[in-house]
Amino acid sequence: MNIINTLTLRSLKLNRKRTIVTIIGIILSTAMICGTITLSASFQDLFVQIAIKTDGNFHATFYGLKLDETKYITDNPYTKKAVLSRNLGYALFEQSTSENKPYFFVKEYDAAAFRQMPVQLTAGRFPEKAGEVLISEEIPKRGGKAYQIGETIAFNLGERINEEGQQLPDDLSFEETEKFVTTGTKTYTITGYMAKPHFEMIRSTPGFTVIGFLDPGGLIPNEAVNVSILGKNPRQIYDRVPEMAKKAGARDYDYNSELLKYMGISKNENVNAMFNSVTAIVIILILVGSVTVIYNAFAISVSERKKQFGMLASTGATPRQIRRTVFFEGALLGLAGIPLGILSGVGGIGVTLSVVNRLISDMISMYDVALRLIVSPGIILATIAFVGLIIFISAYLPAVRASATSPIEAIRLSKDIKIKGKTVKTSRLTRFLWGIEGELALKNLKRNRRRYRATVVSLFISIVLFISFSSFITYAFKSTGLYYQDIPYNLSVVAENASAEQQKSFYERITDLDEVERYAVVRENQVGSWLTRSQFSPYIQKNCIDKKLFGANEDGHYQCVFHITALGDKEFKTYTEENGLDWADFKDTQNLKGILINKSITHDAKLTEYNPLQIKAGEKLLLEGFQDGEETDAADFTMEVGAVTDSLPLGVSSACSGSVKMIVSEEVFAAIDTLLQKDSQKPYDHGCPTELYLCTKDSTGLAAQIRTIFEDYDDQCSLWLYDVEAEKQDMERGNTVISIFLYGFITLITLIGVTNIFNTISTNVALRRREFAILQSMGLTPKGFNKIINYESIFYGLKALLYGLPVSILISVWMYNSFGNMFEFAFILPWKEILYCVAGVFVIIFITMLHASAKLKNDNIVDALRGENL
To answer: Quick one: 83 and 10 in the same domain?
Structure first.
């Protein structure tokens, strides 16, 4: 080790406090960077695991390929793995007790596909040869008790045909008027049961899934199959698949969008824009926070050692050697801080994930996955490279500045303080308001702008980081709240395929239970009304009418769908009272009147909440029923808008685009229902099934009682029970998890800022030891000394807030616009966090200044005047 590096090492040892604070800053920065990357990788891994369980482990599927055409796909250099499958279509399930699922849906997979596709075996084994089949565990529960493992089953395959004689698509829900035409029979032996496939839960497929074994060797040349692939480079999937499909002659293709989305690959520009913007903001904030704290440490170090550098230069040290000594200092601090930072980051995230796993275990248990700690060599190397780059950038400017100073200037420190003309002049008002101590404090800040600026910049960065991340949390939770609307009930119940008498009896038995605190029996009919353009809100005019999404009639009016909704007498009375209305005013069947809910949510490219109509209470609307090809005119009636509100009653959700909800009494609903049925050739069927919504403190216990009551009813009936409370608990756990990570991140950001401020202020005060000794020798009292420290603290805080708050607000607006790519809500400024920030800035400054100046109060004046900074 040469003499210059030895002096550098000695300087670090002598200035232990600054060295330790700098290492702490590097540790915190490294921990934050490593922890952020590790956390992102761990959660991405979890979502990828879930997507594989629900949608399969493949990137794209090519449809309708002949056996010889599949070779272009399977042998393509881009293909990492390929599996074969095919859909044989529907087969009659004559024993089905589900009115909307009278079929089997028959698929076939080759051996590899059973491992790659989302198939979860619950009993038995996977098919291993042609003629073996796996069936959904729902089949025995829905009338197929005879279909046991080891039994032989014959499927009467065929096509679903509509009234016009056209074949219906596979994913279209069941239609009462459709017919089934048998085209062939296929026999299988049942080898096992599988869990209900995920696609059955999200689509309205009218058949229970069964999957047979596909033997490629048994296919005839013209039989079509589907090929699903994993690409070697997933990021090229959207470019390579269309080209491969065209050359192979595929009838169609699609992507496993859910899996690709969680791998960070999406064609949705809004999702990409939001993800990229938020990622860029987070990276910039981390980079700025880390660079500032480390840069200030090196700038202070160079400032303290400037006279030392001058003496070294005067004895023959070259500018290159002086630069290298600063870089050597950076390397030593990095070697000490980076490994500890990586261990701290990985260890902290590991402990956090173990806690989070317990919080979300119920949410992810159905997928049989876990939140794993993902630490790869790439993450470690990326962290080292990133922090190394930060240290280099932070050390570079001070190193260049140190090497560029001439020996005489460095020894005299003539450039440390520059005063030109009226630079330090203060107004008379300053002395009048704050006295001589305030004037001295302000003059010192003006005289020593570089150190003043470093402290203000440290505070500025801390303010911007704290408020920016607070805004991020605010917008993230607002977006989540907008997507998952507050649900005021705990359970919802539907008795399907039950007669009106059975349904009424079933619901009454439930509402009589002691556990039920509040309930609504929601019935609905849909009607339409032709409105003028001016009756629609500006949002609908701009986004629907102007874009030709609404068709106009001959009079230039546009149709709006009205959901006429009844809640039951008890709940309707409660709802009217909550809105300050008299429920008796809405029971007149001769003068129909309803409550208009003027609030809608659209789930298009953005999720937006808006008012759909510009209609006031007292206006009358002409409403008419919808026709299903009947020759008679549609029934119509006039209804008065008795009140307009945006509050939703129990069991009623916001209407979708182009429609609104109209809440009516039971008497008015019955009268409208009679009008709609009048002169109709068949029952009016434009509404929703009657649904029961329940409020209770024990949703699990009440759900068990409801299932017990349902056993007394006909086997042809089916029960649909939705436990909202369980979903709410999952959401609350999710919000808790998000809070843990985001507030943990804010804590790290704040610690970095505090470290930066402490390092900057305490060092600056220590460097002014001689200055304070001179003032004390001229008669400065301890009280006056305290005043100077307090005034400087105030000036630091005010200047930092003057710059920090406007920039923070601008970044908040930027974040708001980033979230606005997917969600639409009013701009929110985190006022509470801003007030906390203002208070925190002054508290931190005062504590740091008092701590740094405490040692100077009892200094010997002569020693201080003769002293040098080490």
So the answer is: no
